[in-house]
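Recall that a protein's primary structure is simply its ordered list of amino acids. Everything else, from secondary elements to tertiary packing, is in principle encoded there. The following example makes that idea concrete.
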Amino acid sequence: MFYRYFPFWQTFFERLGWRVLVSDGVRQKGKIVYFEDSCLPMKLLVTHAVFLKDKVDHLFVPRLVSVHRTYIMCPKFRGAPDIVRLATGGNISIIDETIDLRKGERSLFRSFLKIGERLGASRQESKKAFQEAGKSFSKFQKDWTDRINRIPQGQLFELNIPTPPAGRKVPLRVAFIGHPYNLFDTDINKDLFTLTKSLGMEVITSDFLSEKEIDQQISDLSKEIYWSSGREIVGALFHFLSGGVDGVVFLTSFKCGIDALLQEFIKRRLKVRGGSSIPLLILSFDEHTGREGLTTRLEAFRDVMEQRKAENI
């Protein structure tokens, strides 16, 4: 969730007078810390936590239960603070306030008031920091698509870097769908967006599709999807496969149970619908994924899209 909410988090802590340090643990250590046999994002979480534990006063690892008024997160998110606490030996303060938006509209505000209280801030100071964080986050969202296509992927979340003006228009628009860590963590996807842009494609993501647009695509499903991330991925895939882009790329992580189920579900759904007129590429990542293979597959995918566009299919 760093790759969705960091602008909010950073502004909140900085307005309370704290310096925010972002981990660069994998590049610095040169390897992933294997604490448990888990999915790739949890391995990276542990790696970054171990890198930071001797450099900070607190680690921010919220216990994310729900970021939606109805649906829940993958259970791994609930246990993330406990895994980090074990991996770091219990010798570092962990800010692990629970965030569960099913408890009402003001539940997020109440959670951050508790965080501010723990850091020694008054209620008024925390309230002001929360409001400013919301404004900063809204501005970041507004510029998001432009930032993806005009700023290097490793600098997307550096808020001091302004969004450059529009450049030349590229011929192919490609929607990238998946969990935020698969989309934006360069340790996972090997700087995929830089490669994509170098091949003449414009990057589109599902981050700010409306809830209505997502629900329209999954309203006729025979069974409810309770994971908020799963709902978003399935809804966004069918939204973009219906039109508006030249191709769709679904990014998954090896050993992610949710991704494995969704991938099979999507294939069967497309088969029932008679396929899709828009090309779909599925890329699966693990810690051994190499950039060369991604380059080959993306180049072939671009060729398919260009051919279909030339033939007006």
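Residues 157-310 form a domain with the Rossmann fold fold (CATH 3.40.50.11900). The two ends are 37 Å apart (CA to CA).
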